Amino acid sequence: MEITAFTASQLLELLSNKKISPKELLSAYLKHIENINRKTNIFIHIDPEELIKTSKNIDTEKTLLKGLPIAIKDNICVKNQLTTCGSHILKGFKPPYNATVIDKLQQQGAIIMGKVNMDEFAFGSSCESSYYGPTRNPWNTECAPGGSSGGSAAAVAAGIAPWSLGSDTGGSIRQPASLCGVAGLKPTYGRISRYGLIAFASSLDQIGPLTRDVRDSALLMNIISGYDSKDSTSANMPVPNYLNCLNQDIKGIKIAIPREYFISGTDEDVKAGVLKAIDVLKKLGAQLEEISLPHTEYAVAAYYIIAPSEASSNLARFDGVQYGLRETARTSDAENPLIEMYSKTRANGFGIEAKRRIILGTYALSSGYYDAYYLKALKVRTKIAEDFKTAFKKFDCILTPTSPTGAFKLGEKLNDPLAMYLSDIFTISANLAGIPALSVPCGFTKENLPVGLQLMARPFEEETLLKIAYAYEQSTEWHKKMPEL
């Protein structure tokens, strides 16, 4: 088996035992990237020469990760490295500081490989809206990898990174994890610092891991979790050792299956994969019962008021003055050169989907519509959170499909925004409620495309998700399969 097919935990053992050096491991990945990236367009910012230099200076004795590489989504700031959110408007932008998660990784000896592709400003579910072109799904390069963390999921699936970081605002870790056949965890809102994550919707965004298996997710969560005074939304909560929850018996654990997540339009192969997963969990001793989450049907509508509204506010800062792209007025005698510069910069810097969401959000927040749209959406959000709170009084976990379909063809939904938005129909509620949710592979469609199983738990009970997911994973082989590229 090629070294690039190993899990992060397996590679860490090799590095710890000095059976491979950080430079040798990185060189293997760089060679693999050279072969694979032309077919998939996963990495968009990478400097091989600088990476090799970095690998020579890793302290393998005193650090936990000992030079293990990691891919980073292009909306997480890395000091002096291009960070563009997949957008033309951040052309050439190199942050003067690290995101907190990057500091934590580097302190433990991780090598930041570079930036992987994403939907522009995380606006999308297919990784097609990037200024740098679409990323292709390693299982079928005619298909989308999901989004917005499509590059992060595809990098792990293709074996060109052992693990990666993504961000999840409405399913942007879990949906691409499902479509690419990897594990993807959206932690509880506040569990991981958002400092240095370029904001999409500040009340919804959360950084999280995409990995080959659940053990790797637990390991990465140990490193990046915890309180951060630089993030006002960070939760000052104790962080457990997530590896300790693995290998635990799940006999008697109570799992709810909400009927609202098994709707018409869900692919039959997806349903079959999830139902087989339910059978596996029953054999492991879990108690499963059907429930109702009655406000689920309003989640998409509420989300697409709240998220664009927050995006409209957050993206106002990109005006060509402080950083990134700056267009100039056509003539020096323009009536208002400053306004013309703003207009031209934003018109040429943002793509179609970014403009669509800015307009939607600005409209929803405008005078006369705030109460009718945004305020009402916030009330619906509260109702959705109450549904989960009620369910968790009796159940330890909620089980659903991650995505209603397997990977769809590139271009299939690009000109139909509503169809694209509905790709996140099963993942949005967890963000609105602020609870942790995880996707793990649970099968394949007839077209040999991965199917994902989603688990959701109470706030700050990522341990419950990892325990159940690991028990399921150890009873199946889905997580061991890799695409042939």
Description:
The protein has 485 residues and is an alpha/beta fold. It has a domain at 3-249 and 471-480: Amidase signature (AS) domain (Amidase signature (AS) enzymes, Alpha-Beta Complex), CATH 3.90.1300. 36% of the residues lie in helices and 12% in strands. The protein has an 11-stranded mixed sheet. Strand 2 (69-73), helix 4 (100-107) and strand 3 form a beta-alpha-beta unit. Helix 5 (150-158) runs parallel beside helix 6, helix 7 packs antiparallel against helix 15 and helix 9 (299-314) crosses helix 11 (352-365). The longest helix is centred in the last third of the chain and has 22 residues, at 370-391. The model has no long low-confidence stretch (mean pLDDT 96).
Mean of residue pLDDT values: 96
Rg for CA atoms:
21 Å
CATH class of the domain at 3-249 and 471-480: Alpha Beta
Which structural class is indicated by helix and strand composition?
alpha/beta
**Low-pLDDT residue intervals, each spanning 5 or more residues:** none
The largest sheet has its strands arranged as 1-3-2-4-6-5-10-11-9-7-8
Oligomer: single chain
Fraction in beta strands: 5-15%
Shape: globular
Instruction: Please give the largest β-sheet.
Output: 11 strands, mixed
Span from first to last CA? 15 Å
The sequence of SSEs as H and E is HHEHEHEHEHEEHEHEHHHHEHHEEH
CATH superfamily of the domain at 3-249 and 471-480: Amidase signature (AS) domain
List how many beta strands DSSP finds. 11
- CATH topology annotation of the domain at 3-249 and 471-480: Amidase signature (AS) enzymes
| Percent helix | 25-40%
